[in-house]
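Incident review: delayed structure delivery

Summary: a single-chain prediction request sat in the queue longer than the usual turnaround. Root cause was a stuck worker, restarted by the on-call engineer. No data loss occurred. The affected request and its eventual output are reproduced below so the record is complete for anyone auditing the incident later.

Affected input:
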Amino acid sequence: MTQHILIIGSGWLGLPLAKSLNQQGQHVTATTTSNNKVAIGDVNVIHLDTQDPKSIAALNMHFDVMIITIPPKRGLGYDYLTELTQLHHLAISLAIPHVLFTSSTSVWGNNKNIVIESSPMQPTTESAKTMVAFEQLIHDAPEYLATTIKLSGLIGCDRHPGRFLAEKTDVANPDAPVNLVVKEDVIGIISAVIQQDIWQQSLIACAPSHPSRHNFYTAAAAHLGLTPPTFTPETLLNKTIDATHTSQLLKYQYQHPDLLQWLAEHE
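Output delivered after worker restart:
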């Protein structure tokens, strides 16, 4: 069924997501705070300042789904929760029946456990605490149905992990499991939620393979011809993200389940 979808944010994830949903036959409108991005190709991109209540109030269109993909920003006086809460009120004012929020696996902080969708959240950073608070707000909202997808570390051809730790020295946690997901799989999971009408769920996007930091980032740097990082034996608390339930619920098979194989294919 064709739906009218509003994507808040047309950045690294939002714009390719908009293009993919367009290709699937959905009617997509993406927002940007930059006038330079308005009307990109076949994607309908509109200007929207998510930190300006007047800009938000001026939006008056019909949508079936709102997808919020904006990450926290840095800057003096910036309030991530206020920005997100304004979008919550926008969904209510436009009577949007479904909201999808891309959160982060950072809401589980650092621990030594295997983390699944139902694990208690233990945020330690301000941004993670904000994501937890906003997830509770939208899931408790009676005006619409919401689903949250917690994203592990994002990688892609234009965000190659070989550059993450290249040339660094004394990197801790060489044996820690890597929790990453390729952008195409995030788009696939979001698409599956919309296609299958999966709402009022807390889901995870994370590749099922978890090579060690030493093995993964050494290989990642080598694939780009960069100097691999050097590691210390220091061990900190490390979680392993298990997204099995999400995959089973959505009947979703990862396009890139093996992170080391993805590296080999994207030199």
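Verification: The chain is about 30% helix and 20% strand.
Action items: add queue-age alerting; document worker restart procedure.
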